[in-house]
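Study both lines:
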Amino acid sequence: MLSNLIKFNPLIAYMGTLVSFLIIFGVLLLFCFLFFYAAIQDAKKKDKQQLKLLQELPEHVELKAIVKFNIGRPQGRFLKEKKFQGSGLLYTLNQQIFFKDAFEMEDKIFNPSEIVIKWHDEAEENVENSFSLDDGQEKIYFHIDNSKFLFSNANNLTSTYELFRDLKEYQSVNN
């Protein structure tokens, strides 16, 4: 009778393998769910910040765009992989160009007669297909993000180059 209990049962072995596989698959699904949940929440937070910036604008803004920016300073010393440091709002008002960082850490006001607006086709500072505003003290790269996430609804302009052209025209009119 004891020898019957000790016998190998293939059904029990297969069930153990199946349960182990289901546990591993469940843990993998949980990690994927948490990753996508965090990405969606981050996109919603970014959209809220961008809409808040748009709502805080003065009434008579002539040109406005939600942009990504990179000042060229390293964003952490180890393996800088991000092309852009963050997002913000670029707008024109009263013969000046304003940039408001979404986190209000890099806000800047540019005088069109004192800056150089330059288009960048080639990668410079790990940024290509962007333009820069350079006031002699600091050079900031800008790019309009056309790849919208599921919940994005903030930007109106169609391209970074269109914004560059509009700013060059604004600069020539206000010089």
Remarks:
- The mean pLDDT is 78.
